[in-house]
Design brief:
Layout lengths: L11 E4 L2 E4 L11 H19 L4 H12 L3 E2 L3 E3 L2 E7 L7 E6 L6 E4 L10 E8 L5 E8 L6 E6 L20 E2 L5 E6 L16 E6 L8 E4 L7 E7 L5 E8 L3 E8 L6 E4 L6 E6 L2 E6 L7 E5 L10 E4 L6 E8 L2 E8 L2 E8 L4 E4 L7 E2 L3 E2 L5 E8 L2 E9 L5 E5 L10 E9 L5 E9 L10 E4 L17 H5 L3 E5 L9 H5 L7 H16 L8 E6 L1 H12 L6 E5 L18 H4 L5 H10 L1 H4 L8 E7 L8 H11 L7 E6 L10 H19 L3 H13 L1
Parallel strand pairs: 34-35, 34-36, 36-37, 37-38, 38-39
Antiparallel strand pairs: 1-2, 3-5, 4-5, 5-6, 6-7, 8-9, 9-10, 11-12, 12-13, 13-14, 15-16, 16-17, 17-18, 19-20, 20-21, 21-22, 23-24, 24-25, 25-26, 27-29, 28-29, 29-30, 30-31, 32-33, 33-35
Length: 691
């Protein structure tokens, strides 16, 4: 392929006595005219190649059916007002609505489809006041993380011209019970502050409606440490204020005070443990993995907050990982994962078992959410073959009823969903979900797409993914591996895949590929892998460590230069997860697996589709640029394509039409590279519609 040329520079650093070549460092400077021209040329070339692949129109039609849907989120209830998000078959973005009462007239509150002619401004978080009369919400240009906070009056729909707060990247407003103020995390927008240092500048502030945000009271100062996150909020009764200082995804400190007191006091210092606090009726309910890798719950009196006085309320379940707690209807709702599938249990506020919530099947469910003093609660359930459905339940009676459903043109009975277990390199037992058509034959010739993540305590659940259905209909297998580094089996599972144990994650992924080949699902030439963000690091490592195992790689918004990642974007906040090349011991680990540094000339790498976003302010797109350049210049025959989504952040472009085009590009690439008959997709889709 006559790909655009990329020049090479003789840049070599000596780190801890090791020479580290970085021939594409010049691609780090996105503002450079040369880099801009390179990006434009690479993206244009990629789109030209993708446009030639057959079957794209059939894919586009199928994704139009699957992506433009009518759906309803579970509601947030404030007073008697219900707030929820609805998607429409004829709109690009979801719309926020409200009702007076559950059966009241539906009214539009925020329609981001009207915010910009090109659809590049998105709705971020939204938080109604406790009486439901005010709404704090954020607007995000280019669907990036950076955001501006606004406030509107729900009855009139009028946006306040005064309550406009910049620096709302981490803001999650916590309303006071008088509905006139909220606490929020504020981040300065001063361009003189290096991007990589900004997290350490986060402050907790208090905003009173109608006042100039520049005068907002400082509630808790910045930590000054760019490796930390700071956030906080007030209890619903307005009595207690909490601040969390988090270091990575494994530990945090909790500070608290009674509102009106001058100084915060330390509730608990997180030394290798994390804590979350819910408050109700003058009690603290603390969820923690301290001394309990699968997590447990304590009940704490603010009159005796010292650690020695904490009372264990819900002991650790060694067979299931406790993922979260909510107080609803005077009970504790506990969400567990057992072999990566959800269980939800109810206990009293004294920890006495009440019942398991009746879920509609085996899959992925949210915890119950509602209000502490109201009987009604909601949860969302989905599976690989069941689109997300919203259920309403009574905490008191246990009654469960369908509240909102999504109808899609699929026949779940045509597909098999199974969970398998395999052994990793060191003998660790790892779960693997598989989805495929029931007529699949294990002849080693099925196109297979393996996905994973393996980091930051994130669990990969068996939830619905509409984008995989054209793949399944064409005879493809879709697989999700629950790798170490995630949270599927609690703290120990996460710890086994971070810092100097990160190679375990890659070994788990390689072993998943070997299992799929050994069991006759596929063969290397027919096996593709995909992952985004930390999952992009995963597939980059797999591609460079075991290139012979895979036929294609889709790498999305990744980090790949593990020697310099901490110098850009939010990188310093990830040091507790990965380590830093500034430390000799960490450097040896990072340099050994850093995908950018493992690319070797003459190696036959699988075909690569790199999918980046031009406004990704979480993982700097320099990783994608440098890696693609190095792979292209490694001198092998398979394509290495760079697709850059315009006006998009880390999570994509937030427009259905762009999501369709992205999926068409991704799957047409896989169909072409793996030799899948695209006509099969069209015929399968037509068969679905005919039935």
């Amino acid at each position: 392929m006559n790909q655009p040329a990329t020049r090479v520079e003789a840049v070599v650093d000596t780190l801890h006595g090791v020479e580290v070549a970085d021939p594409y460092r010049w691609l780090e400077d996105e503002k450079s005219p040369e880099v801009q021209a390179w990006m434009k040329a690479q993206d244009a070339f990629t789109r030209e190649q993708l446009a030639r692949f057959p079957g794209r129109e059939a894919l586009r039609q199928r994704y139009t059916e699957l992506f433009y849907v009518e759906s309803l989120s579970a509601p947030a209830v404030r007073g008697e007002r219900y707030f929820y998000v609805r998607t429409h078959k004829d709109k690009e973005k979801a719309v926020l609505y409200w009702r007076e009462g559950e059966k009241g007239e539906e009214r539009v509150l925020l329609d981001p489809n009207t915010w910009s002619p090109d659809g590049t401004v998105s709705l971020g978080m939204w938080a109604p006041s406790w009486d439901g009369r005010k709404l704090a919400f954020s607007r995000k240009p280019n669907a990036a993380d950076e955001a501006i906070l606004h406030v509107l009056d729900v009855d009139t729909g009028k946006w306040s011209e005064v309550d406009v707060i910049e620096g709302a990247k981490y803001a999650s407003p916590s309303w006071t019970p008088d509905n006139q103020s909220f606490y929020y995390a504020w981040l300065p927008t001063d361009p003189s502050i290096p991007v990589s240092e900004r997290p350490g500048y986060t402050e907790l502030r208090l905003h009173r409606l109608g006042t100039d945000p520049k005068t907002d009271a400082l509630v808790h100062p910045r930590t000054g440490d760019p490796k930390t996150f700071l956030n906080g909020g007030v209890s619903r009764d307005g009595k207690y204020l909490f601040v969390y200082i988090t270091r990575g995804w494994s530990e945090n400190d909790v500070w608290w005070k009674r509102v009106g007191e001058k100084d915060f006091r330390l509730l608990v210092k997180g030394e290798g443990a994390k804590y979350g606090v819910d408050v109700w009726d003058d009690w603290f309910y603390v969820l923690t993995d301290e001394g309990a890798p699968m997590e447990r719950v304590f009940k704490v009196s603010p009159e005796r907050p010292e650690r020695s006085a904490w009372r264990e309320l819900v002991p650790e379940d060694p067979t299931a990982a406790l993922q979260g707690i909510n107080i609803v209807g005077g009970h504790l709702a506990l969400a567990y994962l057992k072999d990566a599938t959800t269980r939800v249990k109810l206990v009293t506020l004294e920890g006495q078992p009440v019942r398991d919530v009746a879920l509609p099947g085996v899959g992925a469910a949210s915890n119950l959410f509602g209000l502490e003093d109201r009987d009604e609660a909601w949860f969302v359930f989905s599976s690989f073959s069941t689109p997300p459905q919203v259920y309403k339940t009574s905490v008191a009676s246990g009654r469960v009823e369908l509240w909102a459903r999504v109808d899609l043109p699929i026949q779940p009975e045509r597909y098999t969903v199974e969970q398998a277990f395999y052994r990793s390199k060191d003998g660790t037992r790892v779960p693997l979900f598989l989805v495929y058509r029931k007529d699949l034959k294990k002849n080693g010739d099925n196109p297979t797409l393996l996905n994973g993540y393996g980091g930051f305590n994130v669990s990969m659940l068996p939830s619905f993914r509409s984008s995989i259905y054209p793949w399944l209909d064409a005879g493809g297998v879709y697989a999700v591996a629950n790798l170490r580094g995630g949270g599927e089996y609690g703290k120990a599972w996460h710890e086994a895949g971070r810092l100097d144990r990160k190679q375990n994650v890659f070994d788990d992924f390689h072993a998943a590929a070997e299992f799929l080949i050994r069991e006759g699902y596929t063969r290397p030439e027919k096996l593709a892998i995909s992952g985004g963000s930390n999952g992009g690091l995963l597939v980059g490592a797999a591609m460079t460590q075991r290139p012979e195992l895979f036929g294609a790689v889709v790498c999305q918004v990744p980090l790949l230069d593990m020697v310099r990642y901490h110098l850009f974007g939010s990188g310093k906040t990830w040091i507790p997860e990965y380590g830093t090349a500034e430390q000799p011991e960490d450097f040896r680990v990072l340099h050994a697996y850093s995908p950018y540094h493992r690319v070797r000339a003459g190696v036959r790498y699988p075909a690569l589709l790199m999918m980046a976003a031009d406004h990704d302010d979480r993982v700097d797109p320099l990783h994608a640029r440098k890696f693609v350049a190095r792979v292209q210049n490694a001198g092998h025959a398979a394509p290495a394509l760079l697709r850059i989504e315009a006006n998009a952040g880390h999570g994509g472009a937030d427009q259905v039409a762009k999501a369709i085009e992205s999926s068409v590009d991704l799957y047409s690439f896989l169909f072409e590279v793996l030799g899948v008959q695209a006509g099969g997709t069209a015929s399968a889709a037509n068969a679905n519609r005919a039935r």
